[in-house]
Amino acid sequence: LSHGSGGRAMAQLIASIFVKHLDNELLRQGNDQALFNVEAGRMVMSTDSHVITPLFFPGGDIGSLAIHGTVNDVVMSGAKPLYLSAGFILEEGYPLAELEKIVISMAAAAKQAGTAVITGDTKVVERGKGDGVFINTCGIGVVPAGVNISGNRAQAGDAIILSGSIGDHGVAIMSSRENLQFATTIISDSASLHNLVADMLDVTKDIHCLRDPTRGGLATSLNELAAQSAVGMVIEEQKIPIKSAVRAACEILGLDPLYVANEGKLVCICPAEHAASILTTMQQNPLGKNAAIIGKVISDDNHFVQMNTAFGGQRIVDWLAGEQLPRIC
Amino acid sequence: MPGKAIRVRGTVQGVGFRPFIWHLARQCGLKGGVWNDEQGVMIHAWGSSAQLQYFIRQIPLQLPPLANILVLETTELTTRSEHNSFEIIASQQHAFAQTMITADAATCPECLAEINDPHNRRYQYPFTNCTHCGPRLSIIKAIPYDRCNTSMAEFPMCPACQAEYDAPDNRRFHAQANCCSDCGPEIWLEDARLQNISSTDPIIQAALLLQQGQIIAIKGLGGFHLACDANNEMAVTRLRQGKKRYAKPFALMAKNSQQVKEYAQLGNIEQQALTDKQAPIIILAAQGKKQAHSVAPAEDKLGFMLPYTPLHYLLLQHLSSPLVMTSGNLSDEPQCTDNQQARQKLAGLADYFLMHNREIVNRLDDSVLRHLGDKIQVLRRARGFSPEALPLPKGFNKQLQILAMGGELKNSFCLLKDGMAIVSQHIGDLENVAAQQDYRQQIKRYQQLFDFNADIIAVDLHPGYLSTQYGEQLAQEQSISLLRVQHHHAHIAACIAEHGLAIDTPAVLAAVFDGSGMGLKGELWGGEFMLADYVTCQRLGHLQKVPMPGGVQAIREPWRNAYAQLAHNFDYTAISKEFADLDIIRLLETKPLSILATMIENKLNSPLSSSCGRWFDAFAALLGICPEQIAFEGQAAIMLESLAASEFIRQQDNAYDYAIESSHNICVLNFRTLLLAVLQDLQQQRNKAVIAARIHHTLISASVALLLKLSAQTQTNTIVLSGGVFQNKLLLESITQQLQLYGKAVLSPQKYPVNDGGIALGQALIAASIQVI
Ligand SMILES: [Fe+3]
Ligand SMILES: [Mg+2]
Ligand SMILES: [Zn+2]
Ligand SMILES: [Zn+2]
């Protein structure tokens, strides 16, 4: 891959990779924009830029991650995802064969999510000015009537459900990037959660909040929701699913799994009376099989997220402020 | 007849000051009056010059126990007396001075005599108090300090109590918590199923149960205690398991000093502190070993206090052995204060509850003191001390109001107002939910009690401290300017402030040793040599920087620091081969060292730190002291100190080698040779107490040498020693003595904790000084 000089031949080469793998009717229109009809109702739109080292990691790669990340942001509104765009920034010299692998993975992920990349763009930057591949994706979706999911809707008494084990993605990325040899290879949980959310909405449309605890982990998502909704939360340490390999790795690394990123998990806040049936449904979906009710929403002017620890204590699970430097004197 | 107006400021309201003046003035044959106002107390007195002179001289000499005079000014009165006698004049309105909120005080001798006198109407009444003693901060909700603003509000006084309250010559004149068995709070005993146990005397019943090895949650003055017979190993072990606190020593309550002496060495200074009105816990050297082993399994020290409420006195009277009196909580949670909360949280832990119905408004832990040289040092400052104010040294702006948020662990906060620094009671570790809630509530309460509005909020440099985050939030919400103060600078400022160094005092030299605090450029510091005044602080030296692999995990697991020291100073593979037989190397070989090596190399959650706390952890681990994991903060260092104690004096001249290096004009203490020597001594199976003592002497020699060098270089002869590591008495006493031999003036914190409990005071003073300059 070369920058600037390539001209027409290079552009065609790249385009051919995209066309070949991401192929769909709208992309085939060949215009600078994709044209499509929309249903009446409410739409959501979300964008995310994906920057990750390494580009390939156990359980995924930047291509699938770029789809999962944006699809999940769209579906956390309860929406059914419709279409995606993709913008690539490629570093000069990045092997085309690798790029093709990424695009193939993207295509598969998009298809699996029942959506398609219908418009895209590529830029090539000088060597040293990028990190192989950066991908921006944008997604749109349609919110079914009667669904009203928002971060400010948590109410005292609501249940907090987590769809599965935490920390898998962050630890997988770190071990693969830093070449840390743990006893068990830890695999990223990167996945699209559209089916899981659809299943949950089949149980009831009365879900208050959904959020995917990505960067900053579960702790950050819960604090965001508590602040947005002006409520407090109490979670139970012993109810939070964590894989033993992830727990062991976190202990060695000195990381708190509550703050480690996930890419295929969601937090659901719903009225307590629906919690059991939503949970049962989630557990029947492969992406929610380890789902658990981990706590509840309470009223608290301080908007604290507090955790009953396995030890019997109560600790504040606070926002991550700057780097995780030890606070203990 | 000449007259004098006498203005008194200080702790002079609600402590029996006016009756005292009334008595004294009448004794002196004076005419006039005394009254409270918003500045304190005002006295107008007429008499002969000799009478007046005598009167004024006697005031500070005969002061009631809880009163404290900060200012006594006299001016001539030109008017003539309109009084025929000397009277207490009722205050027109409640414009009370801030100094009126005093600390809680142990039962006074007069009250004690009453509860022991079968003919007194307060015989055996557990809530007996007067203006000289009893609850204060623990029961106050709002100002003014009137009964209606305390948890005594729901106990209207009976006629007999009211009469005492109204009589100027009575010890209970305006005693807001005055009560008796007819009108005041009562006690009862519940079992674990929350059934009231009908008993004619719940205290005798409780004593009986304690003797039988039962654990009783006792509601006291500032919170609940969990009590059991200190000599009953089964009971103490059961309490440890229930509390999930496996190693940290339990505090003890003995009936009197005589009983304390059966268990520990009690010097004169310690005895005085023990029997003082603050009634703190005093840390003493254990002797006799009569107590159950589990009371203090890992240490050769015991913490004792004496009864400080009538309830405690009455209970201890019926017991032949001391009681374990540990805070009523699970592990390191703040102690419970509320009946319902105690029933919930202590269920399964306590067999019985000795309850009462006077609400504890402000949680106050027991204060902890120790003897140091010929002085007493406060390690935890709470009941009996807070909210006593410290007058600011010379030169500080008295108009500014400053709120300093304190640290993260052992938090206390500080208000600066009217030239006074008011440091809150020990709040606790802010990550704990109850402590965090208490923190926010107490900040609000103090602001209200002291009619306080912050001009500046001071916080620690560490962005992750919950105190910093709350300070930022308050500053933003109320548009108050925020000042970030470097952690170790705050330690120094707190120390020089309590020693009264004026704002323009030349900079002092300091060694600040602690676990860690945020330094400049995002570094973690903790073994610092600094030159500082209130405004500026310069780092002149530090302990060698060593990685902390796993960050907070390196604080929990001492082996990580041992590994980091070895890997940082040597080729780990080579050194581990050479010393393959050592326990510590064997242990390290079972650890994921290649991952740790990668973490250190890739700077993955392995911050470099000059921490002295981690330095102690590393050496403790080398010697086999809880290398896997510590059970409480500082445990490894505390146990290393205990191990060193027996050999400490003998090894005085046997420090190992060390090096003082210099880079970029900063001196670095390098302990590579020390490490190697310790490994060699371990290999030759030398006595570990000797090694531990020599390790201590190495740090002491290195610190003294570096301080002397810096002292000469900076022409500074005053040296401050502060930071949590100086809770190590061997270290603090030796460095102090050696520096004194060289003619240096050595200051270390006494009234405020040497650990992070003291930094709020420093933060406040630094903020105040910057505004003055
Ligand atoms: Fe500190
Ligand atoms: Mg996003
Ligand atoms: Zn009294
Ligand atoms: Zn009465």
Tell me about this structure.
The complex is a heterodimer of chains A (329) and B (773). Chain A is of the alpha+beta class. Chain A folds into two domains: 7-143, 2-Layer Sandwich (60s Ribosomal Protein L30, Chain: A), CATH 3.30.1330.10; 159-316, PurM-like C-terminal domain (Phosphoribosyl-aminoimidazole Synthetase, Chain A, domain 2). Chain A has helices spanning 7-22, 25-28, 62-75, 96-112, 168-178, 194-203, 217-229, 244-253, 272-284, and strands at residues 42-50, 56-57, 60-61, 80-91, 116-125, 133-143, 159-162, 209-211, 232-236, 267-270, 292-298, 305-308, 314-316. In chain A, the strands form three sheets. Chain A has a seven-stranded mixed beta sheet with strand order 8-10-7-11-9-12-13. In chain A, β2 (56-57) and β3 form a beta hairpin. Chain A starts with 6 loop residues before the first helix and ends in a 13-residue tail after the last strand. With 773 residues, chain B is of the alpha/beta class. Chain B has four domains: 3-100, Alpha-Beta Plaits (2-Layer Sandwich); 187-356, DHBP synthase, CATH 3.90.870.40; 386-485 and 755-772, Nucleotidyltransferase, domain 5; 543-747, Nucleotidyltransferase, domain 5, CATH 3.30.420.40. Chain B is built from 24 helices and 30 strands. In chain B, β22 and β23 form a beta hairpin. In chain B, α15 crosses α19.
Instruction: Give the class of chain B from helix and strand content and strand pairing.
Output: alpha/beta
CA radius of gyration of chain B = 28 Å
Give the overall shape of chain B.
Answer: globular
Number of strands of chain A: 13
CATH class of the largest domain in chain A: Alpha Beta
Could you tell me the CATH topology label of the largest domain in chain B.
Answer: Nucleotidyltransferase, domain 5
Protein name (chain B): Carbamoyltransferase HypF
Enzyme class (chain B): ligase
Family (chain B): Belongs to the carbamoyltransferase HypF family.
Catalytic activity (chain B): an acyl phosphate + H2O = a carboxylate + phosphate + H(+); C-terminal L-cysteinyl-[HypE protein] + carbamoyl phosphate + ATP + H2O = C-terminal S-carboxamide-L-cysteinyl-[HypE protein] + AMP + phosphate + diphosphate + H(+)
